[in-house]
Amino acid sequence: MEYILNIETATKNCSVALAKGGKTIVCKEIAEEGYSHAERLHVFIEEVIKEAGITLNDLSAIAVSQGPGSYTGLRIGVSAAKGLCYALDIPLIAVDTLQALASQVTISSGLIIPMIDARRMEVYSAVFAPNYERKREVLAEIITENSFEDLEEKLYFVGDCAEKCKSVLAKENYIFLDEIVYPSAKEMSAISFEKFKKSDTVDVAYFEPYYLKDFMITTSKK
């Protein structure tokens, strides 16, 4: 049975999960304001490996959150993942951060809108069906009262943007599930295993996290 180490550092949540056959067996994570990824990540990796009673040589692949998200956080996660893949000579799997975030939601109808806070009223977002098939590309966008107005289904928002978006996204079909939900390596386990079975991997040498273009900045005419 394949062991895959999943690394998620795209947001404030520094998260590491070890999966066996696509199911999480050990997870260590912490969400802190100060972005402690550099200090915590390698400790968490060592802890999940030890707790599972295996060694790094038992790993079949490393999966890393590809973004979008924090530039620094993504760089730390990808650098660690690449280093392990080089040392162990195993493949690297890239997982869509917003797909993993959407996977925390279970619905039978409607659409899932995972959102990651960027700054001010800006977010990274996408649209997913109940089966987690992506229905709209990932966008860096500024949230206004007109955002998502073309979608008539019930929209289930998940992420760390509820506090700032609730007052703006106030239509009856808009449902905020929790105040703060961060992407977690736990939800990467099933996704990375499916990719592993299909040999859907990335080039360890050339892979880069998914950085979106800068938001459109406008200056006051005053």
TrEMBL record:
- Species name: Flavobacterium algoritolerans
Write out the GO MF terms: tRNA N(6)-L-threonylcarbamoyladenine synthase activity
Q: Which Gene3D superfamilies match?
A: 3.30.420.40
Q: Which UniProt keywords are present, listed alphabetically? A: Acyltransferase, Transferase
Q: What is its EC number?
A: 2.3.1.234
Q: What class of enzyme is it?
A: transferase
Q: What is this protein called?
A: tRNA (Adenosine(37)-N6)-threonylcarbamoyltransferase complex dimerization subunit type 1 TsaB
Query: Which residues belong to any copy of the Gcp-like domain?
Result: 36-155
